[in-house]
Design brief:
Layout: H1 3-9, E1 22-25, E2 30-33, E3 41-46, H2 57-75, E4 79-84, H3 91-100, H4 104-121, H5 137-149, E5 153-157, E6 163-169, H6 192-200, E7 230-235, E8 246-248, E9 251-255, H7 257-269, E10 272-279, H8 283-296, E11 301-308, E12 311-313, E13 316-317, H9 328-334, H10 337-345, E14 353-354, H11 357-381, H12 387-391, H13 400-407, H14 412-435, H15 440-459, H16 467-470, H17 476-501, H18 505-517, E15 520-525, E16 528-533
């Protein structure tokens, strides 16, 4: 037995199920046993949004996929640190801000808030840290200097021999370049996943037909030693505002895109961390370049790479050029947030997700089936397990087939099959309870199934009795339901107030008890009674 296994055996915080977790690694192109660097802790870095414009469902898919991965690791007993960055400066942000008559930082902040609002509405756990690129320029400058000192980067001089502001990574100096995607030339896919990505075309935010168009205009500038060299730091353009320029030993300019994530991941997770994630379109060149520059700096960097596939429509990948992007706010206006979340997480994270009427109809049907069962089971038992009971249920307490599916590279479709099988069995058991109120064994079995169903849903962030889903602002249907509930409860509170005024305290208490049975608590305040739906 190796030392990591011994540490896991003696670590009380991890469930027994944690030893069975297996995950795919883009670099090795295989599913393998997951062993964290520290026995009970996991560090995850997920590439976040470039906040140039409003979010669409393609952005949301990656965030929610890693939210489910994180939630499963928490169920396994890990302490998870998840870092999701914000790219708040790049050419597109600067250009679009100038065209709109905005300050670049103003535009970035407006759309950063839109992304945050969409994530919150869909129930994504907030990241442990959410660093902005512009807040970490000193760390980026240090990394560039380190690469120069180690012979893996070079400064391009201007016409007078002074530092121009352009600094490039010297790909020829790093023979391991290509270790992530296994591309000899940077133009051919080396595995099935990459081949699908190449056939699908540019990334969701790319413009133009060439998937391998350099991320920065600086990559096209003269002075590069090799065609594959990429910009670490790039000289300011004449159109760059003064607030978008930093003075460094290698000239005035701003960071290259790839540099940002290497510097920020090390700042919050250290030189070595467990998982680096992002969308499939970031695999090359962004993540390939991140890996090369970080390893060349002497860091172990990410021990595993995980990538989510795209959202497609009619077999075509969402992209601005196709005009088929679905804005997050439009989707959330059309469907309840629970239904949108279910649609986005119900497909395996490495499979393309086809977005259309069928997908949403299936998600809506799942919503009705799941909520119907939870409601009926609660009524049959006369109560619901508390949110605390649901949240504290560990992986070792969940159905074995569900655990096996989640531990096998987070196979959500197979895990959902276990969930719906449990609902079918429990629905059959409820018939016995209805016929015999004293059927204790049937009640115990139903309670176990109800706890299992809600705890399995909790792994996906979909427990319907989580207070998150009872809040207003969770989609059009949720808003309507909340308004209807508020109207009904307000009538009950008015009747209670009338009874109290008439000193009919028995009736007033009966109304309070009736609301409590519906998991609605009342608080009397100086300005009148308020109500809250409890989990």
């Amino acid at each position: 037995m190796d030392m990591s296994s011994k540490a896991r055996d003696f670590n009380d915080s991890l469930s027994r199920a944690a030893a069975g977790l297996r995950l795919y690694d883009t670099a090795t192109k295989a599913v393998s046993a997951f062993e964290s660097i520290e026995p009970d802790r996991v560090g995850i870095y997920v590439c976040g949004a470039t906040v140039q414009s409003s979010p669409h469902v393609g952005h949301l898919r990656t965030t929610l996929a890693f939210d489910v991965i994180r939630r499963w690791m928490l169920k396994l007993g890990y302490q998870v640190t998840l870092v999701r960055n914000v790219t708040d400066i790049d050419d597109k942000i600067l250009d679009k801000a100038a065209a709109a008559g905005q300050q670049w930082w103003q535009r970035a902040y407006i759309y950063e808030r839109e992304f945050t609002a969409a994530y919150d509405t869909l129930g994504a756990l907030p990241p442990t840290y959410e660093p902005r690129a512009t807040g970490h320029v000193p760390q980026m400058v240090e990394l560039v200097e380190r690469l120069i000192d180690r012979g893996h980067a070079y400064i391009v001089p201007d016409e007078e021999g002074r530092p121009s502001g352009n600094v490039y990574f010297d790909v020829e100096s790093w023979p391991e370049y290509g270790a992530l995607t296994h591309q000899e030339t940077g133009t051919q896919a080396a595995d099935e996943q990459a081949a699908v990505a190449d056939r699908m075309g540019p990334s969701v935010d790319a413009e133009g037909p060439d998937q391998y168009k350099p991320a920065d205009d600086a990559d096209l500038a003269s002075g590069k030693r090799g065609p594959r060299d990429f910009a670490l730091w790039k000289a300011s353009k004449p159109t760059d505002p003064p607030t978008a320029r930093w003075t460094t030993p290698f000239g005035t300019g701003r960071p290259g895109w790839h540099l940002e994530c290497s510097a920020m991941s090390r700042r919050y997770l250290g030189a070595d961390f467990d998982i680096h994630g992002g969308g499939l379109d970031l695999r090359f060149p962004h993540h390939e370049n991140e890996m090369a520059q970080s390893h060349a700096a002497g860091w172990g960097f990410a021990h595993r790479w995980m990538h989510t596939a795209w959202v497609t429509q009619k077999g075509e990948k969402m992209s601005k050029s196709l005009g088929n992007g679905l804005a997050a706010d439009a989707v959330l206006d059309a469907y309840p947030a629970w239904v949108v979340r279910y649609a986005l997480v119900s497909t395996h994270y490495r499979s393309m997700l086809e977005w259309g009427d069928q997908t949403m109809n299936e998600a809506q049907a799942a919503y009705e089936r799941i909520n119907g069962f939870v409601d009926r089971a609660g009524k049959a038992l006369g109560w619901q397990p508390s949110r605390q009971e649901v949240a504290e249920r560990t992986a070792d307490q969940l159905p074995a087939d569900f655990v096996a599916a989640m531990n096998d590279d987070i196979k959500v479709p197979e895990a959902l099959a276990v969930l719906f099988a449990t609902i079918r069995r429990a629905n059959s058991g409820m018939a016995g309870i209805a016929g015999d109120p004293n059927a204790r064994d049937a009640q115990d079995g139903l309670l176990r199934d109800l706890l299992d169903v809600r705890a399995m849903l909790d792994v996906f962030g979909l427990d319907p009795l989580d207070p998150h889903w009872a809040q207003p602002g969770r989609g059009a249907a949720a808003d309507t339901a909340h308004e209807a509930l508020d109207a009904l409860v307000s009538q009950e509170l008015a009747a209670r107030q009338t009874a109290r005024s008439a000193k009919d305290f028995a009736q007033a208490d009966a109304i309070r008890d009736r609301l409590a049975q519906a998991h609605i608590t009342i608080e009397d305040t100086p300005t009148g009674p308020t109500w809250q739906l409890e989990g």
